[in-house]
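Example record

One chain of 435 residues, shown exactly as stored in the release files.
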Amino acid sequence: MSEAMAQRHLVSLQMDSEQAFSFEGHGSSNRYSSSRSHDTTEQKEEEALHTDHQPLDGLLESIGLGVWYCDLPFGKLTWNNTCKKHFGLSPDAEVTIDLFYELLHPDDRAATRQAMERSIAENSIYDIDYRTIGIDSQVHWIRAIGRCFYDDHNRPEHFDGIMVDITEHKSVEQMLREQAERLEEFEMRKDEFITMASHELKTPITSIKGYTQMLQNRFKKAGDGQALYFLSIINGQLNKLVNLVNDMLDISRMQAGKLHFRDALFDLDAVVLETVEHLQATTQTHELSIGSSANAQVFGDKDRIGQVIVNLLTNAVKYSPHANRVIVRISTNQEHVTVSVQDFGIGIDEEHRQKVFERFYQVRDITDKGAPGLGIGLYISNQIIERHKGWMQVESKRGEGSTFSFTLPLIREAPGRPQGLSYHRLDGVERNLIE
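Predicted C-alpha cells for this chain:
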C-alpha cells in the first residue's frame, strides 16, 4: 500500500470515530453532525492530510519522494509537496489530471497517457520516465511508478504511486552517452589511420625488400661477405616491419569484420612441425622442441593457425633471453586438441595474465630492460582462435616462465601421414611422427 493510500485510510478511520462520538454524546446534534458529514468529508480529509501527517510529509520531502493519489475516473489529484515541487507548483496549488498533462513535455504526453491507461486496463505496474515543464519553466526528468487498485467488483477505484526527480541521473546518462559516441568516433578514426598507414608503408617496404634482394644477389656473385652480412641484417629488420604492417592490417580487417579465412580440413601436427622447423632455422639462441604429438586433424584456416603458432614461438624466444629452449606440446581429449608453447623466461604476474589478450595491452615492468611489444600479436591470435570456436589461455609464474596454449575443436584422428615427417624430441633424438 502506498503512503497516500495509507493516509486516506487513516483519514477515513478518523472521520468514522468523530461521527460515532457525535451520535453517542449529543442528542439533537447527532442529526446535525450526520447531515454535515458528507459535505465536509473532502475538507476534513485535506486538513487531516495536512496536519496529522506533516512528519511523514517532511520525511518524504527530505528524501525527494513524491506520493500521489487520485480517485477514478481521473479528476482531482492528491499530491504531496514533493510532487508539486517536481512540477514547479506551490504547496497550496490544486492539481487536476488536465493540469498534470499540461505540465508534461509535449513529446511525452501521449506515451504517459498510454502507460496509465494500459496499467489500469491490464492491472499492470505503471512505470515510466517523462519530462515536466513546470510553471517555473524548469525542465525536470521524473520517474513515476504506480498501479491501479480495484473494488470488490474488480472495478478501477483509485490510482496511486510515487515519483522521484531523476534529472541528475539523466544528465549523467547523457554525458556518458556523448563520451561513448566520442570514443566510438575516436576508435573509428584510429582504425582508419591504421589502415591508411599500413597500406602506405607496404609499398615502400616492398620496394626496399626488392632492392635488398637484388643487392644480395650482386654481392653474392662478387663474393663480398661483409656486404652480404649487413644486407642480411637489413632484410631481417624489413621482415619484422612487414610482420608489423600485416598485424596492423589484420586488426583493421578484424574491426571491419573483413578478415578472410580459407577453411579446410588440415593436419595440425604437420603445421606445428613445419612452423617449428622454419623458425628453428632462423633462431640461433634457442632449441625449439616438440614434446608430444596428437595425430589429429582440425577444420579451419591452416595459415591463420600457423600465424598463431609463429606468434607464440617468437614471444617465447623474445621473453626468455636467459634460457635456451622452448617446448611445444600437442595433446587431445575426446573433443578438443590443445597446442601449448612453454618457455623458461621472465614469466607474467597474475594481474596481467588475462589482460595480455586485449588489444594494445602491454606488460610494462621496470625490471624488464627490453622494449615492450605493441600489444597486438596475442590479441590477433586470440581473435583467430575464437573465430575457430576455440580459446586461448596462459599459465605463468614470475621468474619461472610461461605456457601459452590454444584449444580447437577436434574433427577426427588423421588416417595417415606422409612418411618422412619428423620432430625433435626432448631427448634430442629425431623420430618419425608415427612410431
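Notes: The chain has three domains: 3-171, 177-256, 264-432.
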